[in-house]
Amino acid sequence: MSYMREALDLARQGVALASPNPMVGAVVVQGERVVGRGFHTYEGLKHAEVLALEDAGDVARGATMYVTLEPCSHTGRTGPCADAIIAAGIAKVVAASGDPNPLVAGEGFRRLRAAGVEVEIDTANQAEAEKLNEAFFYRMRTGRPLVTLKSASTLDGKIAAPEDNTGWITSERARAHVQELRHAADAIVTGIGTALADDPLLTDRTERKRARPLIRVVLDSTLRLPLESKLAKSAAGDLIVAATTAASAERRRMLESRGIEVKIFDGPRGRVDIRDVVSMLGERGCLSVMIEAGSKVNWAALESGAVDKVFLYYAPKILGGLASLPMAGGIGRMRRADAIVLERTEVHMIPPDEFAVEAWVRKDV
Predict the structure, then answer these.
(1) Euclidean distance between CA atoms 181 and 253, whole angstroms
(2) How far apart are CA 234 and CA 217, in angstroms?
(3) Facing residues of 264 across strands?
(4) Catalytic residue among 32, 49, 70, 256, which?
(5) Is 49 a catalytic residue?
(6) Tens-digit pLDDT profile for residues 57-103
(7) Concatenated DSSP letters for 87-137?
């Protein structure tokens, strides 16, 4: 195993534990021996580089550090990692990627070089390192959380049949893959239609530790969410119902009395403006937001421009018919030339016969 590969594997241990910070792993190598290891968790406070240096102790002097992200150069909750590396006597730093945070953005590398520390960029692992922290990179570059629309459908793009929708479209293995996406997300958004039809919990069922609860959001313009629903009953400071001013004040009081937060977002055609919901989640420190909803909300989210990526799961089934619901309903686009275009497409095989398509939504800005 390469030293950077070990650092990347360490960084992955920070999934759901590092947000709103990036996942970072670091190893300190003296000669051909790893003498220090560290990865960042938000609760643990200390950054990966400092933990690796502490693990190495005095042996760090003259050693090489392999780190997945440019060491920070500013004081936040902790002091600058670049200064700690210099003080420890590290001779060389190999980093997989720069830090897009405007407070760093190359300054960490400049500070190291100014102190005589050799700096090398591991371009061979750069794409993987940036993919690992794509939500953090996106937030730093745009100021918005990364929004991913997830859906599961038949090969002909149907998510529900007109009658008897018990059971699942995709397999248990595919659904386990979805739970990994949920575990990595900071918030999950659904519509009241899905909440009423499926009575979901929308929880992270991986049973792995999180630094922060997964925020659950229901788009519910007139506050129809039943108090006896699984979502309402399980609310523990992690459930937000997004409504409009058309909602009943009495219904709002009833929901709030159960510990459910109600927020008002008036949007077009009397609906909740999902872009405002995403902005609110960004203000709360969310790096990544998942949309798991029905046909109408899926189209509204895509049409609004709120969606940045899609993760579409396909089962080897065909429903056919005009009454079965498509992945994205609504009015749609009237001309093929106006179709929403996806790019940077990846296909993930889910043996034996399923697959998922991951792609970015092409945007003009």
Answers:
(1) 33
(2) 13
(3) 243
(4) 49
(5) yes
(6) 999 999 999 999 999 988 878 889 999 999 999 999 999 999 998 88
(7) HTT--EEEESS----TTTTTHHHHHHHHTT-EEEE-GGGHHHHHHHTHHHH
